[in-house]
Predict the 3D structure of the following.
Amino acid sequence: MLDKIGIAKRIAQEVRDGMYINLGIGIPTLVANYIPKNINVVLQSENGLLGIGPFPKDDQVDADLINAGKQTITMMPGSALFSSAESFGMIRSGKVDLTILGAMEVSENGDIANWKVPGKMVKGMGGAMDLVASAKHIIVAMQHCSKEGASKLLKNCSLPITGLRCVKRIVSDMAVLDVVPGVGFKLLERAPGVSTEEIKNATEGKLLIDGNIPEMTLN
Amino acid sequence: MINKRVLNADEAVRDIPDHATLMLGGFGLCGIPENCIAALLKKGVKGLTCISNNAGVDDFGIGLLLKTRQVKKMISSYVGENAEFERQLLSGELEVELIPQGTLAERVRTGGAGIPAFFTPAGVGTEVAVGKETREFDGKTYLMESWLRSDFSLVKAWKGDTSGNLIYRGTARNFNPMMATAGKITIAEVEELVPVGSLDPNEIHTPGIYVHRIFQGVGYEKRIEQRTISK
């Protein structure tokens, strides 16, 4: 099983040179720490920045520079600042190559639920609905099962939907899977020490297992 | 040049009545009109509808106006960091409309651009789409959303001149430029108010035509929500 860092490390392997990337709050934000040094990417923050840099040193903190999680940040050389309208314009028009975000549930046709739990205070969808409706490529970071052991990779989402048929790839604590339209979840890799059988038992939606599934390699 | 300078926040918000619809710039606590919020608190106007990406925190930003029950309705994309907000919402004292962030930004932008409606893919197939017209373009389904306009827009900029030209700083820009365009009356507070001619026209973000009143704010706290430091 992977911990949060392990999931972030595995997702970092999906990053390619030259990509513009939007990282969601939580595990996705950690991905930035594991992108190989020889790969050049630009991180987009939907509150109006291309070129998110590392968190600041104590004496560099600037209240006018935050990311979408409201954390203080710095800017990389060559950064650009813009309004929220322009930010979502570049998201909607497909200029952002990769979106990485968390999910509470994903269905076998790629629907995602990640903004609302009935009975709990609704905090709002923020930019999630805009991102999932428009991103060219979406990778989801998530736990395969709830604390009670119930699968979160489902036939149909039980929670209110954030977007339809949009998730392309999932990196969970147990596996890497693709969402193949009309087929379901296609198992690509197993987390270290996790068997194909365990993944099968933890996946409620249709699961395609084609041949021997390799165990993932993490650096 | 037209002089739009007013003395201070109290003068700027003097005629905001009860039940007004306001837009307030800012993302989290970054780039919020601190001085105008303080003046509204002092003035005690009630029944406000506030269009703002977030609702502040318990003791800062719009949270201050929630505490004094001056807000009737919030129109936002994310309202997560405020316990008093949650209490008023659950007790039914406060009305809330949640809108996807990009849709909110575009609704405000189109409000200031004279475009009454537009189509966006955000929210298709979700509860956001309930009761809204959808249409297909090039094989993909889009949702019709309408413009948003305000009685008063309260924006915060870094620098401005007395004719209302504005320059923002860092990610404190966020919703401020669109909100400046969508107000019947737009009030800008700036950290530094300079004479006409001191700003480079090449670097203006919001042209003064959108701004009706401008003043230099005082005592900016610029509170940080998540101070995050690299080791």
